[in-house]
Amino acid sequence: MNLDAARAADGWMADDELIWLAEQAQSAKVIIEVGCWKGRSTLALADNTTGKVYAVDHWQGTPEDAHLKEVARLGGADGLYQTFLANLDGRIESRRVVPMRMDAGRAAVELAVKGIFPDLVFLDGDHRVEAVRRDIDTYRSILKVGGILCGHDYACPSHAGVTQAVNEAFPTVNRAGLSIWWVRL
Q: Which of 17, 22, 23, 82 would you label with 122, given CA atoms 20 to 30 Å apart?
């Protein structure tokens, strides 16, 4: 398991969560990550799969998180995206990581039209309840049978929308690390 680059990258993913993502990536050939920020979790996925990671984000922050919106603003329109590209350097050139700078819904449609269906989807984008509901519904519809749908920030008081949307969608979920939820569909 290779987590050196992921551990060195800026982000909020705890070490046990990086380990879990890396373990799941080892058996996944097509991975979609929604919400990549600076690439910490993307690195854990990319460095531990023999497949490909589609990294979906608009790299502008979200309206409900003033701190993240301010970081995005201070970095300029492309600041966060340029940081992500620098952190994922050779992985993008080798096409092991494919950045998709767009809305999560549009990315799912584009991937499905191209016949790209994931074994693993990791949701960590917009944490508002409506957005999480939409991401769950959208990505569960393109997930391969037997694939894993998972996400970050479950049971975190500061991200109650995640917990609410996940609990509405699934009667029970598995847990990994501090705040990863997951189901096999």
A: 82
Closest CA to 144 of 185, 105, 182, 96: 185
CATH number of 4-184: 3.40.50.150
β-pair partners for 33: 55, 122
Q: How many CB atoms lie within 10 A of CB 184?
A: 11
Residue range 78-131, pLDDT digits in tens: 888 999 999 999 999 999 999 999 999 999 999 999 999 999 999 999 999 999
- The residues with which 10 forms a beta bridge, in sequence order, are none
Give the pLDDT band of residue 71 (cuts 50, 70, 90): low
Give the CB-side neighbour count of residue 159, counting CA atoms within 13 A.
20
The burial class, CB within 10 Å (0-12 / 13-18 / 19+), for 145 is exposed
Give me the amino acid identity at 25.
A
pLDDT for 63? 65
pTM to 2 decimals? Answer: 0.95
